[in-house]
Amino acid sequence: MINIEVNNKKIEAKPGETILTALKRAGITVPTLCFLEGMTPTGSCRMCVVEIEGFADLIPSCAFPVSEGMKIYTDSQRVVNARKTIVELLLANHPDDCLYCPRNMNCELQKLSEIAGVTDRKFLAKKSEHHLDYSSPSIVRDPAKCILCGRCIRVCEEVQGISAIDFIGRGSRAFVGTAFNEGINISSCINCGQCINVCPTGALTEQSSIKNVLNAIADPKKTVVCQIAPSVSVTLGEEFGVRAGEDVAGVMANALKQIGFDKVFETSFSADLTIMEEASELVERIKKNENLPMFTSCSPGWIKFVEQSYPQFIKNLSTCKSPQQMLGALIKNYFSKNQNLEPEDIYSVSIMPCTAKKFEAGRPEMSYKGNDDIDAVLTTRELVKLIKMKGLDINSISPVLADNPFGDRSTAGKLFGVTGGVMEAAVRTAYWLLTGEELKVQAIKELRGLDGLKEATIKIGDLEVNVAVANGLDNARKVLDDIISGKKVYHFIEIMSCPGGCIAGGGQPIGADLDAIRARMQALYKIDEKESIRTSHNNPSIKRIYEEFLGHPNSEMSHKLLHTHYHEREILV
Amino acid sequence: MSNYKSIKCCDECWHESEKPCNDYIDCLNSEPKCHTNEECKDLLNKNFTKLRYEEIDKPVVFLGTGTCGLGAGAGKTKTEIKNFFEKKGMEVDIVDVGCIGICALEPIMDIQMPGKARLSFKQVTGDTVNEIFTDFFNDKINEKHLFGQHRNEKLEAYKNVPYLDEHPFFKHQTRWVLDNCGIINPTNIDEYIARGGFQALSEALRLHTPIEICDTIERSGLKGRGGGGFLTGRKWKFSQNAQEKQRYLVCNADEGDPGAFMDRAVIEGDPYKLLEGMAIAAYAIGANKAYVYIRAEYPLAIKHLKIAIEKAKEYGLLGTNILDTGFNLEIVIKMGAGAFVCGEETALLNSIEGKRGMPKPRPPYPAVSGLFGKPTVINNVETLANVPKIIKNGADWFSSIGTERSKGTKVFALSGNITFTGLVEVAMGTKVREIVYKIGGGIPNGLKYKSVQIGGPSGGCIPESLIDTEIDYESLKQVGAMMGSGGLVVMDERTCMVDVATFFMDFIQRESCGKCIPCREGTKQLLEILHRITSVSKQGQQTAEELERYQSIINMKSLANVIKDTSLCGLGKSAPNPVLSTLRWFKEEYEAHIFQRKCPAKVCKGLLTFTIIPDACTGCTLCTRACPADAILGTLKHPHHIIHDKCIGCGSCVDVCKFNAINVE
């Protein structure tokens, strides 16, 4: 430990750490803008500058290491004035349309302006002439609101290894854009929405489907049903003052009913179904020793990534549709019959932690006999808006159960929401399929936690199955490259595009820190620990649907509705 | 190697790039070391005499074909020279040389007859060649184009022809870096060696340890000529302390300042000097790979550099096991796309790595973690070109000239309102007045000096009251300017300093990389404020606009200081200098613009009032027809009248009026 002095008070710091880290630990707040926990500091916004004795200029605390005896001032007049000027400069050409902005009241620029005490417009400038990029089914880019902090660029590059966007142009004409400044839909963007989660302003938002959903609800001819992804119930509450990780599944189901959905289903049910299909597929592939390793196919960003960057691995992807699409197909083709409805009469909505799901729902593969599996996808954030729009307070709503026939789930299905969860669920069922016995282990420790890359060797009878779990596509790339180079041999690999899995998906509430994400993860583990039905094959509704409709896993009907194939995809860059 | 053709005495000399000899350069400069043969000694000596053009057997014509020469028409001159000698049926050697420095007089052509001194002619455009040569071969020297003769004791001088070194332009210079420029064939390695080239490298590699080299350079007091002014030897020592074995040397040839062309001239005119300096530097810091980061807008410099690297490799002076000392060096040329910010070292490194040229926060400093994360030393062209002479002549020799804290010489690119635009190299401590009035030949048209802008857009200006400032790193800083890379723009009394600040701010805000907010948004705001100061107010909006304008000025200085205080890199930190510097020395001009709404130098068109002097106007109607705004009324042969509300201040009427009948205020 070394000693430094901050605002005339002595604090301790670790050698080599940045000034900002030391200040945070000591509880001294310095406003930041371009700073992203765990990523390379770029020192570009200069918001976190501090005054250090002996230095002629102000120093960015996020990018400068502490040293013994350093005397730092975080609130001298020079610092405060510099910060205020920086905010004023940003506001000079930022649109004044907060009231119409999706990030109103949840905008870092608004907060910084308040902290800096900006009360009037000091600088005037021409407004940006960049146009909205509405081309993507998942993400809307509004470069006019962009303040060029570069957080989206770093997430896209460092976490996802995609680099679909970067700075273009110099000086005040610089902006963030795609290659050749074309629409983001033809870029390498995988629609994961991590950029939205880190954007401090309204420059990046999801493509909203709220209007379409409300119109469908208002249409008396439509039966409007929805499904809720496993991770949404442990994140939604945060937006209503509930502590992070609190499971609000029942309340949420009631809220959805009150919003006007005729039926509320659980995507965790179809997650169980996915496991039945996927585990069977895995067992078959291992028996035949073909197309191994097998990759999970639940994460649509990952699928697009393989299609565009690693097409040689398309055959290794599980042919299972994602749980969203499986349930969509069942709603339109099974539930409809039960209810004596035509598939066209049903408007099927999914509520997802994910923006890429919007893209997935629109894929041409995702339909049966001309009917799209899913009609609209709402993110957790959109659901929050919908609830607020309807004037509902989830703190005073009583919980209800999800509707049959797709309301039952095992905890294995629920685990889909967190990295390693699909793998754990699949291993449980594969074990049962191969040995006829239940896996004794309560939790596979190696597959849990937020590490970007996890590995395990699992003994199933005489078989040793090598599995890997990766989250964040930069980690997925490492896995693929290791397989190509022959460094690693695996049987089964789970990939989730977002770091941490769906609990930190690109459609989740904005501004979650690592602690919140950890709490969400623990919440899912707790559900798995508490409840009794812990395997997909023991979900009674799953048993019933095979008996009544599908026959058995990988049956002809399953292949018609629940499986698909992917193709090499061309992108601009 | 089949095309291998180095200078050798006889077949007993076995030096080759694959089988290098430690004594190679030493032998060439004295006598063979591995065998004794008087003939060989004579041959080497004779070779060198020839390569120095002290003994020639046919006429040699030297033509300045640097970028400046070519721009002035040297290409056509060359064709005409060839035509002339073909017609005359006379054999001739035409040698392309670089820029001798006095760009204003280009194309410069020298002719040397066997046994006679080298005679130099100025402004030799294609159409003048025939006349000059016809005169010359009729024993007449064309007075109009005569520039002077080169001094050489071994050759017969022309009578009544002044020596070039007595010309005021050269007389007050100390040409150490530029000594070969405009004199030698820049692509011929033999000529460079014959003038003592590669002796320093040979000496450094054979006789000194890297740390000794660093010491010598540090003791010489050589400071970075790219603007920072950090002690070069000390910088080299930093990377010596680094643990990593892989290290890089980077030569910054990304000369981005408007009006600066020192590096270009050195590389075009004497590329081997840079290579020699780089090799010594690389040896000193323990690098075996070096990059030259040069802008693609310098095609000729790149061409010469490529040839030079190729030749030096052939001669075993680059590559593996150089002069059998075990030292290896590969030099790679990396072309940049001409962004000003890529002259900033971390941005430059990003650009070499293939990334967008944007600066990174320091620490880590490049000496610790630079190119590809390895310890890297970055020096500019002029710094490295100084190195061979220091090694050859010693640290004391170098530090014998200059001021107390700035040693040696500095090359400046002289441009603007000055008689002799070009490249000058002066001892540190030379006064601005000497450069402008003695070397530069003063300001043309008898106009008065107003200021020089030194150090490029991020530098500052020096008003008349400070014209006796001695140029060195410290005193320039004191007056709010900086050495920068060496651009020196002279401005006469017709220059408006607010307009100058606007020009430079416009440049900077366009060239800011856009990464950090104070530089990206702040420079734009400064420019907007300057525009508001220099633009015209529309009728009826005056009060609101004026208030805004006053407010701007109050904000301007504090904004400039925040930009300086908080920007990420050197570009941003020095970005407000044009404003701060002009505001410091020419405050009254700002005040005239703001309060009186007048531009004293009559440059800012928005503030000028055009009126027709009735007594002078003949009513010729020329101005009426030239006015794009239909602001001039009048009938033929009657005095005209300008409607001020319609006038856009373009000045077209002034340009066309033959009777000086338009008054501008």
Short key terms for the protein model shown above:
heterodimer, A: 573 residues, alpha/beta, Ubiquitin-like (UB roll), Rossmann fold, 5-stranded mixed sheet, 4-stranded parallel sheet, 34% helix, B: 665 residues, 5 domains, 26 helices
Overall structural domain count of chain B:
5
CATH topology of the largest domain in chain B, by name, is Rossmann fold
Task: Tell me the Rg of chain B in angstroms.
Answer: 28 Å
Query: Rg of chain A to the nearest angstrom?
Result: 25 Å
Largest interface: A-B, 38 and 35 residues
Helix content of chain B: 25-40%
Strand content of chain B: 5-15%
- Number of H/I helices of chain B: 26
Number of helices of chain A: 18
Distance between the termini of chain A: 47 Å
CATH architecture of the largest domain in chain B: 3-Layer(aba) Sandwich
- Widest sheet, order of strands of chain B: 2-1-3-4-5
Number of domains of chain A: 3
Structural features, described:
The complex is a heterodimer of chains A (573) and B (665). Chain A is α/β, with parallel strands linked by helices. Chain A has 3 domains: 2-75, Ubiquitin-like (UB roll); 123-206, Alpha-Beta Plaits (2-Layer Sandwich); 211-561, 3-Layer(aba) Sandwich (Rossmann fold), CATH 3.40.50. Chain A has helices spanning 19-25, 77-92, 108-116, 151-159, 194-198, 210-218, 249-259, 267-288, 300-309, 323-338, 356-361, 380-389, 411-414, 421-435, 473-484, 514-530, 540-550, 556-561, and strands at 2-6, 9-13, 49-52, 59-60, 71-73, 139-141, 165-168, 175-178, 204-206, 223-228, 263-266, 294-295, 346-352, 367-368, 371-372, 376-379, 453-460, 463-471, 492-496. In chain A, a hairpin with a 6-residue loop joins strand 3 (49-52) and strand 4. The longest helix of chain A has 22 residues, at 267-288. By secondary structure, chain B is an alpha/beta fold. Chain B has 5 domains: 60-166, Glutaredoxin (3-Layer(aba) Sandwich), CATH 3.40.30.10; 189-399, Rossmann fold; 409-495, Ubiquitin-like (UB roll) (Roll), CATH 3.10.20; 498-596, NADH-ubiquinone oxidoreductase 51kDa subunit, iron-sulphur binding domain (de novo design (two linked rop proteins), Up-down Bundle), CATH 1.20.1440.230; 609-664, 2-Layer Sandwich (Alpha-Beta Plaits). In chain B, strands 2-1-3-4-5 form a 5-stranded mixed β-sheet. In chain B, a hairpin with a 5-residue loop joins strand 13 and strand 14. In chain B, helix 8 packs parallel to helix 12. The interface between A and B is large, with 38 and 35 residues.
